[in-house]
Amino acid sequence: MAKISSPLALLFIMLSSIMINHIHVASSKTWCIATLIATNAQLQANINFACSRGVDCRPIRPGGSCFIPNNLANHASFVMNSYYQTHGRTNQACSFKNTGTFAATDPSFGKCVYAS
């Protein structure tokens, strides 16, 4: 069996630790968006819930940065993510009765910027 010198072993452990921490940071951004199978009624309920719990819903109102496209899926995704980001970024904060899911890529578009 090959032996590794102490300095080499220490270097390996240090580099491994750096890489593990770097990977964690790179993959730590997640967004909460509506599932494709959520009904319009569920999406509207999610909007109502999030907006009544302190989420700033002005961006999805007419003239807001996330109003266009004017559809429930985009509006719900924006406020669901805002709720998720401001309520601990937990699985439960993105559940929305199983109508929320996680995205690993930023869903922002144009002037509509999703919090991360």
UniProtKB/TrEMBL annotation:
Its main location: membrane. GO terms for cellular component: plasma membrane; plasmodesma; side of membrane. InterPro entries: X8 (IPR012946), X8_dom_prot (IPR044788). Pfam families: X8 (PF07983). The lineage of its organism: Eukaryota, Viridiplantae, Streptophyta, Embryophyta, Tracheophyta. Residues 1-28 form the signal peptide. SMART domains: X8. It is a lipid-anchor; GPI-anchor. Keywords: Disulfide bond, Glycoprotein, GPI-anchor, Lipoprotein, Membrane, Signal. This is X8 domain. Residues 30-114 form the X8 domain. It is found in: Cell membrane.
